[in-house]
Design a protein that fits this description.
Layout lengths: L2 H11 L25 H34 L5 H45 L16 H8 L3 H12 L3 H6 L3 H7 L13 E5 L6 E5 L7 H54 L1
Antiparallel strand pairs: 1-2
Helix pairs in contact: 1-2, 2-3, 2-8, 3-4, 3-5, 3-8, 5-8
């Protein structure tokens, strides 16, 4: 790969700032001082809010990079284009195509944990057993933890749009195939020359020959730009859920701290 080619990519990157946005950090406010009952929630929120922003922003930057390469590739001599595809575009596009499911899963994980922590304080009948271990937290776990919160139902609708049917169909279910089978290639190469298809209703099996053409980087970039919009919407509604949590935490925290102050006053009087 020649240095002038990479310089052209850098120049192309300057024209991608209009793709997506950078989501905020440090956007939430919890009471200070904070009662110990809310320590776990506070620490988790600090972690999750930062890591969700990191994940969404990294996804945004990778889509911008992919868009820049997709614009540049048609202008390159074939040998240089092939080198760029191998060295930069294919690994970048692969990571970007895997990102929607990753972001979606992290929203589910963060939401389940935060709702669980606040439910433990809010509802005396809520138990630790209601939340499975981290490796088993899927959307059904988030549903259970989020069930007392109206804001969760709206957030769930946004989460479910990330990496949905539109992306799966347009990319031959790239994420699932990449993980479990042989995915469609990116830019160069034909795969799946012989494919077995089972009709579950009849049990009939047919074999299809001919192969699957590679995914075009420009088309991938366009698809993933739409996915970014789904991620931003989920991030916005995650913030609304946390705001609803905060609306409960603020008066409860004051109540708990007032109890502590009262207990200290009594102890000071009787000592």
């Amino acid at each position: 790969m020649q240095i002038p080619t990479y310089e052209k990519f850098i120049n192309s990157m300057t024209r991608t700032d209009n793709i997506g946005q950078i989501v905020a950090y440090d956007w939430y406010i919890l009471p200070n001082p904070l009662h110990g009952a809310w320590m776990t929630y506070s620490v988790m929120l600090d972690d999750f809010a930062r890591e969700l922003a990191n994940a969404v922003n990294a996804f945004t930057m990778n889509v911008r990079r992919l868009s820049a390469w997709a614009t540049l590739l048609p202008t390159l001599e074939q040998r240089l284009a092939n080198e760029a595809m191998h060295e930069f575009v294919e690994p970048l596009a692969t990571l970007a195509l895997l990102s929607p499911y990753m972001v979606r899963s992290r929203f589910v994980y963060a939401t389940a944990h935060l709702c669980h922590q606040i439910n433990l304080v809010r509802d005396e009948n809520w138990t630790e057993a209601s939340l499975p271990s981290d490796s088993e937290i899927y959307i059904d776990a988030a549903d259970r933890q989020g069930s007392p919160w109206r804001e969760y139902r709206r957030l769930k609708l946004k989460i479910e749009k990330i990496g949905g049917r539109r992306l799966r169909e347009a990319t031959s279910d790239f994420r699932n195939a990449f993980t479990h089978r042989f995915s469609t290639r990116i830019g160069l190469g034909i795969t799946n020359h012989a494919t077995r298809r089972l009709d579950k209703s009849t049990g009939r099996v047919t074999y299809v020959f001919g192969g699957t053409h590679p995914l075009d980087p420009a088309e991938i970039a366009a698809l993933l730009t739409t996915e970014l919009g789904c991620c931003y919407a989920a991030f916005e509604y995650f913030q609304k859920l946390v705001a609803a949590h905060s609306a409960f935490i603020v008066p409860n925290n004051k109540f708990l701290l007032d109890q502590l102050d009262g207990a200290r006053s009594i102890n000071a009087t009787t000592s």
